[in-house]
Every structure is written in structure tokens, then in C-alpha cells.
Amino acid sequence: MISEIVEVDRATIYLDSEGSLTPMAAIGFTGVSAGRAPLEQKTPAHRQALAAAREGRAPVNVPAPDGGPPFAVVPILKGDVLLGLIEVETDDPPITDDLLQTLARFAVQAAVAINDAQVQQDTSRWQGQIDEALDVNDIVLESIAPSERPNQDADAR
To answer: What's the angle, vertex CA 16, arms to CA 91 and CA 63, rounded to 5?
Structure first.
């Protein structure tokens, strides 16, 4: 968990899905869905920082926008491909360069985990398609007269 790695008060992890950022996980917010608010409900400073990190593929540190708490946004990248963003806030300014570097290292780990999950999901999808193809094969074989079926003894070897 990110709060065990770095000292932040609030954090949200956004994942990129077909060009749209979706808040997937949040900690430190009051209310169940406060950290998972859609981007449209974020402050202009937050939306600008998220867009800057997304487009620039680099961390963005915002000291204290409009008297609010300082926050930073760090991209989660697999090579040049944006997988998501990590947004963190702290009540005790400032967000230091050391914290940004730690968040960047965490983002690398998150990218590996996200990529592994996507590969697993793809593998599961392939397995489902293989199972469906085998089911169709069984149905086809059952519809063929026994004398016309392929030699099943050869398959057993």
C-alpha cells in the first residue's frame, strides 16, 4: 500500500482505460467515494496537474494551490505507454524531491503489477476462447456419425 511506502495523507491511483482516466483506488479521504471522484469533480489545479503529468509523462509537483494542501501527480508508465497516474496530497508541506523520487519508484512497481495483471487477464481470455473452441469441436464430433469420425485412436497416442 502506498501509505506504507511514503508519508502522504491522501492518495488516488487512476488507471488509463481507452484514453480516459478512472480513479481505481484511494486512501485517506473522508467518505467512501471522495478519493474516487471523477476528474470533472476535481479542482482546476488538480485537473491541470493530472493533464500535465499525463501529457508530459513526468511528475508534477503543486506546492499549495489556492490555499489547499500541496499535491503531486506521478505517471505510471510502461515504456512510453501511460498506464495510469498516482496523485498524492500531504497536509504538511512541502512535497520534496525525495518524495517525488520515491513515488516514481513506486510507479515503476505499479506499472509492473498492472502489466502482469493485464497479461493474466489476457491469458484468462485466451483460455476461455480455447475452452469454447474445444466445446464446439466436441459438439461437431457428436454430430458426425461414428463411422465418419476422425480416428480417435490416433488422438489417444
So the answer is: 25
The C-alpha angle with vertex 86 and arms to 82 and 89, in degrees rounded to 5, equals 155
Domain ranges of the chain: 2-120
Interval 68-123: pLDDT, tens: 889 999 999 999 899 999 998 888 778 889 889 988 988 998 898 888 887 777 66
For residues 110 and 74, the answer to whether their CB atoms sit within 8 Å is no
Closest of 73, 112, 69 to residue 94, by C-alpha: 69
Buried b / exposed e over 33-42, threshold 16 CB at 10 Å, is eebbeeeeeb
CA distance 132 to 134: 5
Q: What is the pTM of this model?
A: 0.70
Selected from 3.30.450.40, 3.20.20.190, 2.40.40.10, 3.40.50.1110, the CATH number assigned to the domain covering 2-120 reads 3.30.450.40
Q: Which cell numbers in the block locate residue 91?
A: 497536509
Q: Can you tell me whether residue 150 is helix, strand or coil?
A: coil
